[in-house]
Amino acid sequence: MTLIKPLRLITLTFLYFVTVLTMLVYTSDQEIFFDWTVSYAQRAPLGVNKQVIVINDQLPGPLLNVTTDNVVHINIHNDMTDPFLTTWLNGVQLRSSWQDGVQGTNCPILPGHNWTYHFQVKDQIGSLFYFPSLHFKKAAGGFGAIRVNNCAVIPIPFPLPYQDFDVLIGDWYNTDYQVMRTSLDVGNGLPMPDAILINGLGPNEATFDFQPGYISLTIPFWFPWSYTTQDDEYDSLDIHVGQSYSVLVTAKNDTNGTSYPMIASSRFTENILFGLGVIRYPDSVAYPLGTISPGPTPFSYTYFMLQAQSIRRNLTVGASWANPQGSYHYGQINISRTLILKNGVIFDGHRLRYTINGVSFIQQDTPLKLADYFRLSDVFEPNIMFDTPNDNVLLVLGTSVVDAMYHDYVHVVFQNPLQEIQTWHLDGYNFFVVGMGFGTWDESKKESYNLFDAVSRSTIQVYPLAWTAILVKLDNQGMWNLRSQNAENWYLGQELYIRVKGIGQDDPSTIPIQDEARIPENVIKCGNTTSL
Ligand SMILES: *[C@@H]1O[C@H](CO)[C@@H](O)[C@H](O)[C@H]1NC(C)=O
Ligand SMILES: *[C@@H]1O[C@H](CO)[C@@H](O)[C@H](O)[C@H]1NC(C)=O
Ligand SMILES: *[C@@H]1O[C@H](CO)[C@@H](O)[C@H](O)[C@H]1NC(C)=O
Ligand SMILES: *[C@@H]1O[C@H](CO)[C@@H](O)[C@H](O)[C@H]1NC(C)=O
Ligand SMILES: *[C@@H]1O[C@H](CO)[C@@H](O)[C@H](O)[C@H]1NC(C)=O
Ligand SMILES: *[C@@H]1O[C@H](CO)[C@@H](O)[C@H](O)[C@H]1NC(C)=O
Ligand SMILES: *[C@@H]1O[C@H](CO)[C@@H](O)[C@H](O)[C@H]1NC(C)=O
């Protein structure tokens, strides 16, 4: 979950994976309070001492266990010497970008200060996670799992799982995050990680105790608010930086003393790294015997693109909504705009710059959301990026904000001309993943789209020399971050903001307030807004 580099992770359990879904059923409608202190600590997951970031002395941080419709208040105290912000990744579909916790929406919580996030968890269930958004802190910790449980009134389409597990998979560097950051600043790339950790633990340290014969839910894995069909079973899953799934696992009933490895393997890296956890039964030996499988063979991008396409929505069941998902015909809505976003990388003479349609993002000291609110027109100029790539534009440094209208139905094609995997995330939304293919996208590719039962999610991979197409209804006003989930790319400019404005607000300088939450009373001001 806290992948820094785009490793491809394959989780193998040698068990049955029935695909996806939900969790236990609780009631909601209540306010939930958390008090978190973020600080440095020394930990040595791989036997090498490292300064890590803990929350309430825990790595990973505390589980955020909430139910749909809960109103959540999280008071974060920054006891570090560096500014801090947390973002609620993976479709905690905030209705307010004031709570998004990224640099374009919030001023950082300064050392010695605290700030309380307030948000309601709406229209979703499943396993998500949070992590520090200010760059590279996620390499040191500060992340944790979020469970959004069902409302009691909405049934789940399978037997209640016997137990739940959170599985956080991340790569790990023994190097300090500040050293890594400095290294990027002077033009170096990141090295290979030192290891893959599961739940912040080294090989065979994370254990999962299964009850024979029962269904368990393991939780790195989840498509927010949709159930997938159950005709396919998977014994491995292709997971990318920043993605989460919920899966049902049917435990074996013929336990014969064996324990089983849970394997997260990086594939398509020169040296394959393994994160190893252990699945145990009551009478199991402590550790699995035998050799560790690196995952399915033969191994190809085609194999995993086919797997991604095979995961489809079950249209006959609702998830967080009472109505069956199939009643929403996303494939029949007219598209109001198409964005073709092509990623690139270029050396600017000092360091690498990662780009979207030739524009590499420059952070401002004033959050864009605040600049917008106070009508400061000198912080950024909107629409410096074109909707489609122009191969004459190699590098523009700028604060890229795309203006869009509330309720627009936008078709986005991520075009990847490079040999490496890309992973894209959009805050504030889930989108329908309608197509993927190798080569260069053109209009004819629309014929291959799944306009019927595609899954909806917030983070999507684009395979090397390939494209991925999504459809998104801009039904959430605010300033929303679209970014590469690969930390290096993100840090070096591969992001933009989509400013979703209220109807009738054609003037880009007006504030999108129509359906949006008001500015929080406890808002922190910084940059040009400090004295306003
Ligand atoms: C999560 O919250 C639900 C509802 O309050 C509770 O029943 C359950 O025990 C909690 N789980 C954990 C692991 O805290
Ligand atoms: C900081 O924490 C205190 C209690 O510890 C709380 O009363 C106050 O509202 C918090 N400040 C902000 C800005 O959230
Ligand atoms: C496991 O197998 C035993 C013996 O075959 C059977 O009695 C038991 O009901 C099974 N348990 C489950 C949970 O399926
Ligand atoms: C969809 O879910 C329903 C309810 O659980 C189930 O009966 C049906 O088999 C599922 N359909 C598919 C194709 O998996
Ligand atoms: C236990 O069962 C597994 C698979 O069902 C098998 O691979 C293994 O050899 C068995 N172990 C023993 C000790 O019989
Ligand atoms: C979609 O566009 C077509 C062609 O322009 C038009 O005939 C149709 O009414 C539109 N549908 C909706 C729902 O707006
Ligand atoms: C506001 O900030 C921008 C950069 O973020 C700067 O260029 C500009 O001069 C500032 N304006 C004022 C009035 O300070």
UniProtKB/TrEMBL annotation:
<keyword id="KW-0325">Glycoprotein</keyword>
<keyword id="KW-1133">Transmembrane helix</keyword>
<dbReference type="Pfam" id="PF07732">
    <property type="entry name" value="Cu-oxidase_3"/>
</dbReference>
<dbReference type="GO" id="GO:0016491">
    <property type="term" value="F:oxidoreductase activity"/>
</dbReference>
<protein>
    <recommendedName>
        <fullName>Monocopper oxidase-like protein SKU5</fullName>
    </recommendedName>
</protein>
<keyword id="KW-0812">Transmembrane</keyword>
<feature type="domain" description="Plastocyanin-like">
    <location>
        <begin position="38"/>
        <end position="150"/>
    </location>
</feature>
<feature type="domain" description="Plastocyanin-like">
    <location>
        <begin position="365"/>
        <end position="500"/>
    </location>
</feature>
<keyword id="KW-0472">Membrane</keyword>
<dbReference type="InterPro" id="IPR011707">
    <property type="entry name" value="Cu-oxidase-like_N"/>
</dbReference>
<dbReference type="GO" id="GO:0005507">
    <property type="term" value="F:copper ion binding"/>
</dbReference>
<feature type="domain" description="Plastocyanin-like">
    <location>
        <begin position="229"/>
        <end position="273"/>
    </location>
</feature>
<comment type="similarity">
    <text>Belongs to the multicopper oxidase family.</text>
</comment>
<dbReference type="InterPro" id="IPR001117">
    <property type="entry name" value="Cu-oxidase_2nd"/>
</dbReference>
<dbReference type="Pfam" id="PF07731">
    <property type="entry name" value="Cu-oxidase_2"/>
</dbReference>
<dbReference type="InterPro" id="IPR045087">
    <property type="entry name" value="Cu-oxidase_fam"/>
</dbReference>
<feature type="transmembrane region" description="Helical">
    <location>
        <begin position="7"/>
        <end position="26"/>
    </location>
</feature>
<dbReference type="Pfam" id="PF00394">
    <property type="entry name" value="Cu-oxidase"/>
</dbReference>
<dbReference type="InterPro" id="IPR008972">
    <property type="entry name" value="Cupredoxin"/>
</dbReference>
<dbReference type="InterPro" id="IPR011706">
    <property type="entry name" value="Cu-oxidase_C"/>
</dbReference>
